[in-house]
Amino acid sequence: MKDMLRIRTLGELKSSGYQPRSVKDELRANLIQKIRAKETIFPGIYGFDDTVLPDVERAILSRHNILLLGLRGQAKTRIARMLVHLLDEYIPVVTGSELNDDPMAPISRVAKDLIEVHGDATPIEWMHRNERYVEKLATPDVSIADLVGDVDPIKAANLRLPYSDERVIHFGLIPRSHRCLFVINELPDLQARIQVSLFNVLQEGDMQIRGFKLRLPLDVEFVFTANPEDYTNRGSIITPLKDRIESQITTHYPSSIEVGRKITEQEARISADQRDRIRIPTVLKDLIEEIAFAARESEFVDKKSGVSARLTISAYENLYSSAERRLLRNDENKTTARLTDFWGVIPALTGKVEMVYEGEQEGPHVVALNIIGAAVKKEFLKIFPNPTKLKKGQERDPYGTIRAWFAGGNSVDLLTDLPGKKFFLELDQVAGLKKIVDSTAGLDELEAYTYMELVLHGLAEFEVLSKEFIETKWVFKDFLAGNLKDNDVDMRDLFN
Predict the structure, then answer these.
(1) What is the mean pLDDT of the chain?
(2) Which CATH architecture describes the domain 2-250?
(3) Sign of the C-alpha dihedral, residues 488, 490, 494, 496?
(4) CATH class of segment(s) 255-383
(5) Can you name the residues that pair with 93 across neighbouring β-strands?
(6) What residue spans define the domains of the chain?
(7) pLDDT digits (tens, 9 = 90+) for 388-407
(8) Using one digit for the tens of pLDDT, what is the confidence trace for 128-144?
(9) Which pTM value belongs to this model?
(10) I need a surface site. Which of 120, 207, 257, 264 has the fewest CB within 10 A?
(11) Under 8 Å CB-to-CB from 281, ≥6 apart: which residues?
């Protein structure tokens, strides 16, 4: 390739034995090479190895244009951008051409005129594959001129050409993406009449621009992305256009906690200083992912809209920041994240879920608390026995000592900014709490306190304990005592 980059004229290119090939052939040939070499073709894409990625590879081998169909936050654009790495590293283009013309197969009037004038002395340059990616977000205001082109009066005036001369045309994004990857995100947002303009471009390469019928054999790999929600709420992909897109590939959310964690930890923006000073126990990392699963199952969340992977990424960043803020306020050098820090995760949830009517009535804050509570419940049951279901033959309640301690009128106050030592003392006072955690193997001392806190939150979700957030602290107390106290207040109000 280094020898090829020294070539600067059309004559030298011919002598080198260079043979032009289409974008689709480039993608296919380079994909075959990577598969044979057992290389990772889509690094950093997790959870799609047996579903989405094989379909993408098959589409490339078939030389297809691709539609990636899926809910938001499912790595559709990430996959499209990574296709660039399957292109040849450099390709030759005619210097000064408008449409990245291949010196051996020019299509634009400008390139053809240059070759006619200069012949084998026509200068060429080399275009890197990173320059061969064009992306357009489909919005309702996108026009045919944006995508295909229009007559340019200023060019006509400067060149002193009549409007009947095709050299007055200013080409749009698609012609300028000749020999490139062209991605249109959120395709249904394009107006139907704009989608119609793509028919011939996809199939025959014909274009009409203000009365000019041009036969431009464009060489473009089209990748479209769309959200199924758009088919009913904002627009639709018209059927004839879908018919011309050869491969439609459906994406999905991570199917397991492990895959979700890989994605979150890869994408989260966590500084080296934060990682050094703040420890996130594995159980809390899993809880972050459980929040996303719980949100997708919540009755308050619109399932058609989906819950983006960006929710867990933002929540993970906020968890670090909540622990960091507490660390700074208490002048500590290091700390371990706590469940109380999930109070600071709520802002990452409220803006990333679309709620149904019932959710709107509850309010985003309450819905977020419900989602976190459901996630805590699931994570709790992975480790500890269900407090409402004693196993057959189990005579003694494993949480009996804890119940009795709270039933004696005791309570636990976990302030969001509680210093480490006071936090440990607050949990240590609960009779039976440490004993039930000690049965969990492989925990160090700091992790044990995380699990002790999880027990309190888990028992509160099963209504064994009462949990309430008051100003800047979580208060845990006996469930029945808390309810009786509330009822007493209500009864007094009735008689006043």
Answers:
(1) 88
(2) 3-Layer(aba) Sandwich (3.40)
(3) positive
(4) mainly alpha
(5) 125
(6) 2-250, 255-383, 396-496
(7) 887 655 557 889 999 999 99
(8) 999 999 999 998 888 88
(9) 0.86
(10) 120
(11) 336, 337, 446, 447, 450
